[in-house]
Amino acid sequence: MGLFDFVSDIGNALFRTDDKAAETIKAHIEADNPGIEHLEVVYQKGFVTLRGTSRSWEAVEKAILMAGNVKGVGRVISEIQVEESADKAPKELNPSSAGAEVDYYVIQKGDTLSALAKRFYGNASLYPKIFEANREVIKHPDKIFVGQKIRIPRP
């Protein structure tokens, strides 16, 4: 599962009907805006398209994760224009780049940020590194859910 694919039947239940989905997802992203300007959100049958501008690929990744971790969203398409140099783009967003500085991980049953820090960094006490990389996606280190997709910064 890449950055743009999500488990649509789990996540934050922000809307009940599709007619308010785009508006609700936009408000959700803007509440903790990771750095997207002129944000536009289009929702159609589980697909979300994000448009706007940003100064960093990190902000784009976070916006994608914020939209994708909403119940009812199965795929996010990013048309956000990034103003920084293309060689800093994550591999999945720009296949010609040298590679991303983060990996994407889908939370499994029994996962904690401490367990993930132990797994990825060899030290459970480094969980704040994961939390800080996902501050807009994870509101509290103890509040993650199965199926949620997060960023894992590489050591």
TrEMBL record:
SUPFAM superfamilies: LysM domain. Residues 103-152 form the LysM domain. PROSITE patterns: BON, LYSM. It holds the Pfam family LysM. CDD domains: LysM (cd00118). Residues 17-84 form the BON domain. This is LysM domain-containing protein.
